[in-house]
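are you around this afternoon, could really use another pair of eyes. what follows is a protein written twice so to speak, once as letters and once as structure tokens for the fold. i want to understand how the tokens follow from the sequence so walk me through it. anything you notice is useful, everything is just below.
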Amino acid sequence: MRLLIIADTHVPKRARDLPDRVWAEVARADVVVHAGDWVDVALLDELESRSRRLIGVYGNNDGPELRARLPEVARAELDGLRLAVVHETGPAKGREARCAREYPDADVLVFGHSHIPWDTEAPTGLRLLNPGSPTDRRRQPAHTYLTARVDAGRLRDVRLHALPPR
């Protein structure tokens, strides 16, 4: 099962649309995961129509229309892998221990908010992933997103992709 993991798209405030390369990944993915800060419901509608399966949450920049359609925390089982998705996890310091306490029933936690790519593991084995942002890099060197595979309950081939400058 192929995953595309994105967050903090801020469309149309930071970009008019997702980059073409991200849309190409949407077409290849079995599951698209979006960790919040969509900003406009039109992107949610477009991703829903173009994704085989979409798992998303709302972020702090998402208004009532998005909050009415998306949860604060999403959970899914993907081929035996227990996935949790949330927008904010708090400060970087202590994140692994804090998230391991808050998501004890997850194997992988996808989050956003910081626009900073993140890939760590808590002592409990919880994998924490932040894809950065494909549209608003802030102080990062590049716009980014993640891809991964799920195989028999295991997360494999996690790759951070940097997009070329726009």
Observations:
- The helical segments are 20-28, 41-50, 64-69, 95-102.
- Residues 2-162 form a domain with the Purple Acid Phosphatase; chain A, domain 2 fold (CATH 3.60.21.10).
- The first strand starts at residue 2 and ends at 6.
- The longest helix spans residues 41-50.
